[in-house]
Amino acid sequence: MNKYVLDTCVCSYIIKKKPDVIETLSRNVIKRENDKLLITIFNRAELLTGVLLKESPKLKKTVEIFIDRLEIVYFTEAASLEYAKIRSELQKNGILLDDMDMLIAACCVAEKATLVTSNLKHFSRIKNLKLEDWTRD
After folding, report:
1. Over pLDDT 70: what percentage of the chain?
2. In CATH, which superfamily holds the domain spanning 3-132?
């Protein structure tokens, strides 16, 4: 069984039912019905931040239902070591990435999970991070 962590952008596509990507996303999810779909605690925080900013009870309920259906990957000791490796390597090379993105990536590497994102260019700077984009065929 493979593990796939859905990045916040992918979660947003699903929650908002974006018609231009939802069909492709659905096909990719169906293909992996025997695999684990996950989010990290940091994706959860980003989704909940969006809910609080929008102040929409309907969105709040939709996001809560979505989050409840997925297993959450927490920030572990192994993930903290991966984060340190990722951050120090990027910093030495003068590459700046958002802390949340590095934390999400660290959780994926520690869990040996693939990050599902539509932002491959951004995350491809992180060594040892497996990536897939389920928003395109």
Report:
1. 100
2. 5'-nuclease (3.40.50.1010)
